[in-house]
Amino acid sequence: MRVVSRKPILVTGLGVLILSCMDAAMKSVSAAYPLAEVIGLRYAAGMAVSFAVFRTAREALPGSMALKRNFLRAVVVLLTAGSFFTAIARLPLAEAISLTFLAPFFTAALGYFMLGQPVASKLKLGIVFGLAGVGIIAAGQGSNADHVFDLVGVGAALSCAFFYALSNVLISRTGGADSSITIVMLSNIFVFLLAAPVMIAGWQAPTAAHVAIFVLSGLLGTAGHLCLAWSYSRAPAGTLGTLEYSAFVWASLLGFFYFGEVPSTFTILGALVIIAACVLSTWHRASPDDQPLTPPV
């Protein structure tokens, strides 16, 4: 039996907390600016921070194949970011986060079609229950007189889960060809470059306070993903993956204290159904053959 050190578990928990703080910071500015500008400024800050980490770590410069691999993935990361920032701008933070927990099911489906990975019967059952959780959350929106059902927001959150999963599968397909630091840096650079033309065309000057929030978000995003990359390279993914669901707790607390959002009974129940479905359908006993994946940026 493989014994997992406590340190990767603690670092994973820290990484999830850091990224939850980044989500809250981005929610505070996502509705105030055009989407391309939100993405561009977030990844400009992330680019500066991740490049500094890259230089400090004395990583080898990526070659042409690495640039090609990571550019393709950056397009997916751009779609992930756009979907996520749209979702948190339109939905309560805890609700948006809970819908993105469907990502493991999309990962399994994409793994089957793109990598030929088998899909266990329990995973198929988990997908059914996961969709039921989404239905519960959506029903809660419709039953709340103060909160009209937001099809765009829900669709954006589900799209984020899909593109996040696709990014994960693309990392799996490369077989660990690039280091975590290189992946993080190139993702930030390419996403910024992709968003920059549209950002410049619709530029809206941000306030000094919002610039500080974007810089903080870039710092938190890079730090959080490096924490997860470090821990996932030192412990089985199955052991650490369930810790990522603690993001719902942090999103609920941050949403309450900073935005006055109180998760509805439907949101809490739906999130619990989705989390239970994910855990039960993907859980397995850690073994020496487990190959953890670096989480996507």
Main β-sheet description: none
Question: Roughly how many Å is the radius of gyration?
Answer: 18 Å
Globally, the shape reads globular
Secondary-structure element series: HHHHHHHHHHHH
Overall number of structural domains = 1
Strand content: under 5%
Uncertain residue segments:
285-295
Helix content: over 70%
Number of helical segments with 4 or more residues: 12
Mean pLDDT, nearest integer?
85
Helix/strand class: mainly alpha
How many strand segments?
0
Distance between the first and last residues' Cα: 31 Å
Structure characteristics:
single chain; 297 residues; mainly alpha; disordered C terminus
Q: What can you see in these coordinates?
A:
This protein has 297 residues and is mainly α. The protein has one domain (6-282). The protein is built from twelve helices and no strands. The chain has helices spanning 6-30, 35-56, 64-90, 93-100, 103-115, 121-143, 151-174, 180-201, 208-232, 237-240, 247-259, 265-282. Helix 6 packs antiparallel against helix 12 (265-282). The chain is globular. The two termini are 31 Å apart.
